[in-house]
Amino acid sequence: MGITAGKRFVALDMIQKLAYAICAAQYNRLYDQLQKSVPATVLKYFDDNWHNIRAEWCLGLKFASSSFMNSMNNRLERLNGQLKEVIGRETSLEEFIDKVYIVLNSLWNEHDHRTALQFQKVPTVSHQPGSSEDLYSQLLTTYAASQ
Length: 147
Fold this sequence. Notes:
Layout: H1 5-19, H2 24-37, H3 40-49, H4 54-57, H5 59-66, H6 74-86, H7 93-120, H8 132-139, H9 142-146
Helix pairs in contact: 1-2
């Protein structure tokens, strides 16, 4: 783009701040700063390729719209840890695939076990059969009826 290293550093820093903006207001403030602090070529590139799709890559906007404000990746970290326990660094591709299937089978079995335990639980009933509470609890989920 024909810019100096210093201008490149400023542009990358501003774009990184935009990526980690926590809300639309912060994104708009940072975008105003970007417009004032980067060369026109960088701004044109950013506007043409990134600004219009900011809800897809800006963390604050992305999580607010699609993840119910949950930015945790605990499930992925857990899966990564389980894969690391079973698969070594020097594993061949064939062994890797076999071990991935072993881990997935284990996860499926664990899920099935937890599901079976939920069905085996019998809720205690604290009201008389046929009462209005009993009739309502038959219409509600177990969780809603317990509240």
